[in-house]
User: Fold these one by one.
Assistant:
Number 1:
Amino acid sequence: MTPTVVLNNGVEIPRLGLGVYAPSHNHEVQQAVEWALELGCRLIDTAAAYGNEQEVADGIRASGVARRELFVTTKVRNDDMGFDTTLRAFDESLRKLRTDYVDLYLIHWPVREKRLDTWRALEHIYQQKGARAIGVCNYYQPHLDELLATAEIMPAVNQIELSPYCHLPDVLAYCRQHGIQAEGYAPLVRGLKQHDPALVAVARKYGKSTYQVLVRWSLQQGAVTIPKSVKKDRIRENFDVFDFDLSGEDMALLNSLHDNTRIADDPMDYL
């Protein structure tokens, strides 16, 4: 089992989980969830926009792992944002996931006209115990400043794209300062940097793969991280990262690799 961290409302979240963003591989998501749970993973991160909440539910059911042992995250899609529409979308996610609650419900993107009303809906869902924790995705300082000015409940999590190549220490520092747990997606940069000579050299030093180094880097930033894979060997490899620590020197080297490589939109486009 992976280590956990306690969120600002006292709920524990595993520090490492499985991301299931796989639009061209949704038929493989159920099997990936089963493999991950078999290997000890207990955090599954999906979203309405991924179109695979039902496959996640099938994987959980087939695994035989009790629901109470799992941490299931999903997100409201952009087209469903707004107070009433978010409540309806949440009910639909519960139906597809075949559960009566989720562990974490997130706003997927900070859509300008609807994000504050959507947050009010998340607060309502939390107060009604539909979600054990609520949070946001892809929020940088301006989005968080706006939200915290009116929110009655502090977001528990801010899920952002995070890798050495998309590393914004100011956002991480802001989250720490406000007690918001950072969670990083796309830690493996979809394989785009696997042959980067600097990354390869660090991996060789520790006898690990470049992917394992990227996952370890995210963890040592203090972030929860959710590498995506639908391959059993890769899932196993991604979770085999708790037997080594990157040195301060190597962390500094990896921190210097930032070149704004992204696999998703820039949240600053949502101002």
Number 2:
Amino acid sequence: MNQPTESVWALESQALSGGYGTESIVQDISFGLHPGEWLSILGANGSGKSTLLRLLSRILLPQQGTVLLDGKAIHTQSAQAVARSLALLPQQQTIPPGLTVRQLVSLGRAPYQPWWSWELDVADRQQVTRSLESAGLMDYSDRLVERLSGGERQRAFLALALAQTPQVLLLDEPTTYLDLRYQLELLELLKRFNQDQNLTIITVLHDVNLATRFSDRLALLKHGKLHHLGAPIDVVTPENLAEIFGIDAAILQTPVGLQICPLAPFTSSKPQVQTL
């Protein structure tokens, strides 16, 4: 992770609470991300991970608290202004029929176009090409999105997000429905953008091992509340895994760093600490 040169957070959540209608799903969540930091949000099903991401990305209005994007309240900014700094890759994408990969990625330049213009200028077209190249999709640029494999499709939507040239990228379960190879390829690609472009990343993930491997910090949610936040080595403990996920697990040191091995559902009064 590149160290920030300024004190301003790239993205900050201040006492954030929200949900749907009058129902509060997440409560009183506060944290900040440095530029170039990668945070993964983990928790059991129903813990509020995706709701928190929707609040952070301006899709949902908070019931209380605020989100600051580069020091400015995100919900007081226009959608166009936010889209120039923050991009969201949702869990399920709508695939317009008949759209080529290049046409899809070109949509990422919409925040920079005046409302009366339908054509990309030279600079916009160059950014689309750079995004396609970065995602390894130049050979697929004229292919219909609907004909891509799952891994190729995820890279196409990632290229769309990158075409916005965001400083912050939010991804909701980006590895869902991908086999192991494509999961690793996608996360390795994200890590390269994170390191080379100082891109700030927040991912919602189910897989603790992938989150631990690629993230700078982990946020563990339970029943909509932030229970633990910190570096993987500090957060991924048998006690926390028992509390958040209800499992007994062994902690392993591997060639790719700290990983866990689930052993059984947690039933004892005290988690079994096992380090192999």
Number 3:
Amino acid sequence: MLRRQGEEGQGRINLLEEVLIVGGLLLVQCVLSGYVVFTDHLLALGADPLAVIVVGGAAYAAFGLPFAVALERKRWPSKVSGTLVAQYLLIALGGTTAFQELMLLGIKKTTPTIASAMPNLSPGLIFIVAACFRLERFDKACKYTQAKIAGTVVCLAGAVAMSFLQSPSSSSSSSSSPTAVVEAAGSAGGDDYYDWILGCCCLVAGVTVFALVTVLQAATLASLPAPLTMCCVTSAMGAALTAVVQLVLEGRFLDMGSPNIDATLVAGIVVLGGGVVGACTAFQVWCLGRKGPLFVSVFGPVQTVCTAILSAALLRQVLSLGSLAGIVLMFSGLYIVLWTKSNEISADEDQLQGGGAHDTEKALLA
């Protein structure tokens, strides 16, 4: 009887944990979508993207440090090697400065919805990068490789459709068809259309940089498994590097770029970009430990859906049917890649448990 009651109690605890994880991940994606829309508002007011990166990165490092100390202090090495410092510098330069600058430029020239959809390319691009560096098995005769290639191609097709079947003129109109979008793009002004394409190229370039950085992160985590520490340290380093870049390129330091950016908006960057995003990251890391990276990755498209709703409600930015089709293609490709990797990991589980090689891409999908 006591054993049965204990099993029932454990079952209730497991159910509550499942509800907490699923509900929490859904909430995290909604919160992140809100921050993307808030960032778009800042850029529309004339905020300097480099200054936004500096403030947000410094705040993220400050808010995330207590979590890193509490959860990962015992994993810190007694001596920091030069290799680790070099890896952290590259992650900071690519993941904070380059990636965020490209993404912010992309948001500024397109819409928050397009920007939040592009990162769904990441698993496919990570597969390509990892295969090039021989961190991921690539066998043309293997069904898993073929499926991941197919998923990546579908993702890229969706990104192309999103880029070319949406234009600045259609983002404020809810009745645009793909044909009308192309015609409007040609008549609404070439400069706007080229800016749109440039923004999409910035987003794709940003996601590509993110894929490269993620491969480096996975290699770094293999030697020092402390993801929160890595995020905090690289965010602080990235904020410092970005401040130097702003000083060199623009001759100014920590200048928000517009008098419209008052103290309230700066506080919003600190609280949302640092505290809220930091808490979301800490929760996602905890979920990674409980459920694995594949499970967490499945919730990525929720952010795009929430961003689309918020953009339509607050900014009057509406996607064309062509771009909606592109997003559906991108989501389909994403889930093909994730489903394939899930099956591949299941097939290799016995080998990994038997002391096989470190599965780098398992960390890559985090």
